[in-house]
Amino acid sequence: MKMWDVRTDACVATVGRCSSAILCMEYDDSTGILAAGGRDVVANIWDIRAGKEMHKLVGHSKWIRSIRMVGDTVITGSDDWTARMWSVSQGTCDAVLACHDGPVSCVEYSMADRGIITGSSDGLLRFWEYDDGAIRCIKNVTIHNAAVLCINAGEYWLGTGAADNSMSLFHRSQERLGGHSTAALKMSGWQLYRTPQKAVATVRCAASDLERKRICAGGRNGLLRLWDATLTK
């Protein structure tokens, strides 16, 4: 793995080497922590500033397809049909999420409620949340008829993209309590808001601009589609 200076196009560091192809990675610039996973079924954690590897997270039995890191938490999704939640500082597996009937192709972490969203080749979205100290699946959504390839979540908006060339937008309401606006923070509060017209190519990635309430999706045909979630057309 290499780090580059985008201003000079120069390689400034070689971080480390995995034993096989790297399929996904996350970097936290505030902490200097880099997480990566791939075909060697191990999630590797590096401290870039200290110049050392922190942990090898072992537990998956097949390729790691997706990884998401927020604070001290890393979520991984694998072809072994499971997602796992890990502690960055401790290097331990805190939970195994095993309900999908196919490889877990994408994972997302909701900071507002410490909830997790997983997408799979079975076409399902699963929403997970903590209950009495344990994490469990509290909601399944069948909206795509092919593999869910990407998930992007904010506090109130969530976008997904799938291999059936479709994209879905979810929303959860805001409530006024004591003059302040807060989210209905349970994962079960996510409701399907709109399914835009299908693209002509598989939707491979999605990103959201929370302040402007916009969702952007990229497809295999090289096109980006920008949606304003507040508009009806």
UniProtKB/TrEMBL annotation:
UniProt source species: Sesamum radiatum (Black benniseed)
Recorded GO CC terms: transferase complex
Pfam families from the UniProt entry: WD40
Renumbered ranges of WD repeats: 19-56, 57-96, 97-133
InterPro entries tied to this protein: WD40/YVTN_repeat-like_dom_sf, WD40_PAC1, WD40_repeat_CS, WD40_repeat_dom_sf, WD40_rpt
Name of the protein described by the UniProt record: DENN domain and WD repeat-containing protein SCD1
Domain of life: Eukaryota
Alphabetized UniProt keyword annotations: Repeat, WD repeat
UniProt keyword DNA repair present: no
PANTHER family: WD REPEAT DOMAIN 5B, WD40 REPEAT PROTEIN
Lineage: Eukaryota, Viridiplantae, Streptophyta, Embryophyta, Tracheophyta
